[in-house]
Amino acid sequence: MNILGVSALYHDSAAALLKKGEIMAAAQEERFSRKKHDERLPFGAIAYCLEAAGLGRGQILDAVAFYDKPITKLTRLLTTLTERVPRGVGVFQAAVPAWVKEKGWVGAALERGLFRRGVSVGRFYFPEHHASHAASAFYPSPFQEAAVLTMDGVGEWASSSISVGEGHELKMLMEQRFPHSLGLLYSAFTFFAGFKVNSGEYKLMGLAPYGQPRYAETIRNELMQIREDGSIWLNPDFFGFLDGFTMTNEKFARLFGGPPRKGESEITAREMDLAASIQVVTEEVVLKMARYARTLTGKSRLCLAGGVALNCVANGKLLRSGLFDDLWIQPASGDAGGALGAALYVWHQILGNQRIVTAGQDAMKGSLLGPSYPRESTADFLHKNRIPHHEYRGEARETYLAQALAEGKVVGMLQGRMEFGPRALGNRSILADPRDPKMQSSLNLSTKFRESFRPFAPIVLREDVADYFEAVKESPYMLLVDQVKSSRCLPRRGDEEKLPLTEWVNRPRSDLPAITHVDYSARIQTVDRERNPRLHQLLLEFKIRTGCPVLVNTSFNVRSEPIVCTPEDAYVCFMRTGIDVLVLDDFVLLKHEQPPWKETANWREEFGLD
Predict the structure, then answer these.
(1) Domains and CATH numbers, the chain
(2) Residue 103 and residue 68: Cα distance in Å, rounded?
(3) Alpha helices, DSSP H only, in 432-500?
(4) Share of the chain above pLDDT 70, in %
(5) 261 contacts 267 by C-beta, under 8 angstroms
(6) What is the mean pLDDT of residues 19-44?
(7) For 12, left (φ over 0), alpha (ψ -120 to 50), or beta?
(8) Residues 99, 103, 106: CA angle, nearest 5 degrees
């Protein structure tokens, strides 16, 4: 039984494949197309998934599961716009042709695309959007039973839901309906602060610690109502997403002192305070929803998915609240994870197949579900292009890299299977020494080419996490924020808010300055030998040399580009940035040994990328 799950047509399209209920492969389309947040039907990711499962021409897919119900979503769109006539006419004219041409016929388009690849389909299924999210959260979790909370912008009608999972059965108990949406509220502030909706929300979250929640009461009193069960009501008078092409309107702008910030312009105290305010309100709503989920389901464990579940600051607050004994968050919580959830929903909920749950162990395989590249093909690429390199086998590679990192080198790491989800977890990562007080600034400016205020996450040996962070015991998917141990922190000087943003960012706050955010927090990834043995060994080697079992880990990409997928992608990124050392599995490349990079018009063709 082979089931292909697909999410597409809005943002972060993806594909996932189950074989007899086991997760064989999953990947986002952007990694293959090189278009960030690619929303198109994910035929590149589908081709990879079919290959990973050994399905070629002449084979049959027993089922294809699409992650929502397109016709129900169209009904919501038409109903909403009809209610907003005449203001919604422009949106109607822009949106409906897309539905007539593509979105309403997604099943037929997928079937044609698969047929061209010689694969036939037994049956199509269309679970609801939040059912797909809930399935992605519960079924791979290490829990036999749990409450399940999903939160995002909007699916068909639902914007959040509470479900209960028991064994192989998943039952939705409650949903919040459009337009009253925590995800859309957060995205409205993302837009107003000058960041891109559906991709800049994590920037807003990173900006929040620089501000004060001065606008929190205004948000609560003017924009929304928050009920004790965590459900909300949004005041439509302040938002543009119901009948226009922007998230907020002029009334929203008057409430917060002027028009939205223009992208790339200076970030002011207003944006910092708005970010802090919406973050506080978001955490309040998430905690209320979680509390009600505990009451409604009676379960002591909680699973999370949906775009809001990527708010790792709120997740950390939820963990420390003690509302649940344990917490598990789908590492691909956004729309990409809906592809996996749709396939799992069909396998367990519709077809009735039982789950096999191993206590303390999830079914995500470390979320390392994307492609890997054979040693032979990487060697061929290096030799064909006359690229200088060295080869290290076994632990010799980790020994060499640990020393390079201890000397202040920045390492680009491509090894094994690519991560599924937005976080690089060590296989498509940029690594660096967290003890260097200049490392955050250097990485942001000369390697990532991104905003200076953006923090970097630490990876830490799971066995040493308690020596460096306050509460988190395990966080393998980098989805929880915790406070750096107080004994490692430097005292506040009290003048931070008066400093320019760049100076504030660069002021050391602990003995690990490159990963300590301005509020003394960090988004943690714990590393264990079972999920990623080579990364674990590298941390051990770095600890032997420095006494520190922690490294900076950021995704292997630059601003506005997807995380690298192939060795060719990695080499190009290496040559265009301040990365000193490139790792391609067992091959190690040093920047100073490389020929000068020439940015020619046909460089992609030269490296065999077209």
Answers:
(1) 2-134+333-358 (3.30.420.40), 182-328 (3.30.420.40), 375-606 (3.90.870.20)
(2) 11
(3) 439-442
(4) 98
(5) yes
(6) 97
(7) left
(8) 145
Do the Cβ atoms of 9 and 3 come closer than 8 Å?
A: no
288-327, pLDDT tens digit by residue?
999 999 999 999 999 999 999 999 999 999 999 999 999 9
Structure tokens at 609: 């990328």
β pairing state of 145-151 and 301-305: parallel
CA distance linking residue 175 with residue 283, whole number of Å: 19
Task: Give the up-direction half-sphere exposure of residue 193: CA atoms within 13 A in the CB hemisphere.
Answer: 33
Residue 90 CB contacts under 8 Å (≥ 6 apart), including other chains: 244, 245
Nearest CA among 430, 479, 368 for reference residue 27? 368
Structure-token pair, residue 438: 């200049």
Round to whole Å and give the CA distance between 96 and 92. 6
Q: Are 194 and 265 in contact (CB under 8 A)?
A: yes
> Residue 414's beta-bridge partner residues?
428, 584
pLDDT of residue 333: 97
Of 343, 355, 347, residue with least CA distance to 146: 355
Asked if pLDDT for residue 610 goes beyond 60, the answer is no
pLDDT in tens, 143-167: 999 999 999 999 999 999 999 999 9
- Structure token pair of residue 21: 């209920």
What is the rounded distance in angstroms from the CA atom of residue 344 to the CA atom of residue 603? 41
Q: Give residue-wise pLDDT tens across range 362-421.
A: 999 999 999 999 999 999 999 999 999 999 988 999 999 999 999 999 999 999 999 999
77, two tokens = 């769109």
Rounded Cα–Cα distance for residues 405 and 411 (Å): 7
**Inter-residue contact 306 to 150 (CB < 8 Å):** yes
- 8 A C-beta contact, residue 298 and residue 239: no
Beta partners for 225? Answer: 233
SS (H, E, C) 322-367: CCCCEEEECCCCCHHHHHHHHHHHHHHHHCCCCCCCECCECCCHHH
Closest CA relative to residue 100, chosen from 126, 74, 77, 81: 74
User: Contact, 422 vs 332, CB < 8 A?
Assistant: yes
> Position 192: which residue type?
F
**Spatial distance between the Cα atoms of 366 and 531, rounded to a whole number of angstroms:** 5
Look up residue 252 and give its DSSP letter. H
Distance between CA 267 and CA 489 in Å, rounded? Answer: 27
Integer Cα distance of 509 and 488 in angstroms:
9
Verdict on whether the full-model pTM lies above 0.90: yes
Q: Look at residues 5, 14, 58 and name the one whose alpha carbon lies nearest to residue 334.
A: 14
What is residue 31's three-state secondary structure? helix
Place of tokens 């970010």: 275
Where b means 16+ CB within 10 Å and e means fewer, 358-367 reads eeeebbbbbb
Residue length of the chain: 610
Number of H-type helices and E-type strands within the chain? 20, 21
